[in-house]
Write a sequence for this structure.
């Protein structure tokens, strides 16, 4: 088990090194792509800055907390896009039968699928994320460590939600658009001020569509840290991660039995 994990880690860094080499075949294009991604992110954040200049606060949330939300969300998506973006291809791989290429490899199939695609431009998400953290007004070594921790946990949650959405393809035909819409909805809700969700909406925000685990809880941990909320955050993220792995492996059994949509 330890040997397999070590091999996967070595393979992961080899893949990332290869992706970097490929991206830097044209250095000017690579830096322009990162710059354009950063500008795109900042333009969206600028819109919220204008809103907060007019409103000052939204149900108690001020721009500093929104900056933290963007810091965590952008860093988490940066991790996802650079390391595991390939899982969004699962419906396509099932539809055209190319999933077999990953299943016949001696390496873990989910690992190979996840790392099969990366977008160098998403380094711009990290640029945006760290910039927004330093502009949030909550800057200290303590909060910086919490922000990095929350960003990594947010990445795991994103991976879980995207894997759940992609795994629908094992059970429902032509589910690529459905999976994309579920993931986009999750990201959209996670990028809103968490204070606007109250009552039953807040329960849904933290459970059925757990966008609050990417916004409400991490921001609370940075601004008002508590060990009980941190433990809840870890357990909740691991719960969705476990559910996503279960869904993937359950679907894989259906696929391996020959019940593949559109291909016999």
């Amino acid at each position: 088990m330890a040997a397999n994990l070590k091999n996967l880690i070595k393979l992961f860094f080899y893949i990332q090194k290869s992706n970097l080499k490929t991206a830097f075949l044209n250095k000017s294009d690579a830096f322009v792509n990162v710059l354009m991604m950063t500008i795109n992110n900042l333009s969206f954040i600028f819109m919220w800055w204008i809103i907060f200049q007019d409103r000052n606060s939204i149900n108690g949330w001020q721009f500093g907390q929104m900056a933290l939300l963007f810091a965590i969300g952008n860093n988490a998506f940066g991790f996802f896009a650079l390391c595991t973006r390939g899982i969004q291809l699962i419906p396509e791989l099932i539809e055209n039968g190319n999933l077999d290429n990953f299943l016949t490899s001696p390496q873990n199939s989910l690992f190979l699928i996840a790392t099969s695609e990366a977008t160098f431009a998403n380094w711009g998400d990290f640029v945006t994320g760290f910039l927004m953290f330093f502009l949030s007004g909550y800057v200290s070594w303590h909060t910086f460590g919490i922000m990095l921790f929350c960003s990594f946990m947010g990445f795991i949650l994103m991976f879980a939600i995207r894997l759940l959405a992609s795994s629908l393809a094992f059970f429902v035909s032509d589910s690529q658009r459905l999976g994309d819409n579920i993931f986009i909805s999750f990201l959209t809700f996670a990028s809103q001020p968490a204070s606007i969700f109250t009552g039953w909406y807040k329960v849904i925000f933290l459970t059925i569509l757990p966008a609050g685990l990417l916004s409400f809880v991490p921001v609370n941990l940075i601004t008002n840290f508590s060990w009980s909320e941190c433990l809840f955050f870890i357990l909740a993220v691991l719960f969705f991660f476990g559910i996503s792995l279960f869904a993937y492996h359950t679907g894989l059994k259906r696929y391996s039995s020959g019940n593949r949509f559109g291909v016999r």
